[in-house]
Fold this sequence. Notes:
- This protein has four helices and 16 strands.
- It has an eight-stranded mixed β-sheet, covered by helices on one side. An eight-stranded mixed β-sheet has the order 6-7-8-5-9-12-11-10, covered by helices on one side.
- The chain has a domain at 12-24 and 69-253: 2,3-Dihydroxybiphenyl 1,2-Dioxygenase, domain 1 (Roll), CATH 3.10.180.
- The chain has 284 residues and is of the alpha+beta class.
Amino acid sequence: xxxxxxxxxxxxxxxxxxxxxxxxxxxxxxxxxxxxxxxxxxxxxxxxxxxxxxxxxxxxxxxxxxxxxxxxxxxxxxxxxxxxxxxxxxxxxxxxxxxxxxxxxxxxxxxxxxxxxxxxxxxxxxxxxxxxxxxxxxxxxxxxxxxxxxxxxxxxxxxxxxxxxxxxxxxxxxxxxxxxxxxxxxxxxxxxxxxxxxxxxxxxxxxxxxxxxxxxxxxxxxxxxxxxxxxxxxxxxxxxxxxxxxxxxxxxxxxxxxxxxxxxxxxxxxxxxxxxxxxxxxxx
Length: 284
């Protein structure tokens, strides 16, 4: 008998990649200790090489960390990292240097949760089912959102951005496909949410013009960046227009000059005292 396949399981929709999360940080030194030394990620060697901004590679995605008053994402970022024991060792090694900040880390069931010096939470998962083929990458961003908003948020991404979405009722949350092995999640919470502080995410989309028309008709476009990029920040109910959540999206086309730019990722196990020739780069 000919085998049948669920072809819909391979659909990723119009959002083809979650490229970066941008939060400002007041201290580039502390940011380097956390993101590079502690998490084991890689500073981009080609762009933003000054002392007032840092781009940090994590597989094919990045953190963008310009200098400024600290911004804290309302939720957490989920990374896929390959070696839990090595990660715990690196985080323990920077504990003293990050003393007096909000830095901490804890082992949880299924992940390690690390908190940056200013309160951003990073959940570090081992490679595996649910995160696609990646053994190093930014798997998801999960936002805390007001009660009753998950369904409308899912409909917004479906109607405005052309993304496959689901809504779960166990701790209500919307899940939005954002590329191969990547997604956005919006989890309802009764906890008071802090004011939005202008952090943002960046996505690439295949159909660049249809979402633009949807947003423009509703006066949601906040920046006409250039030919290859625009921005919006309000997620609204597609029917009523009610604002459901606020998070700036930097939206880029697949013709953007930076799309699919190769990113270098290092092997954080290398050191001058325990050096192995030919193993400087990360090997999946």
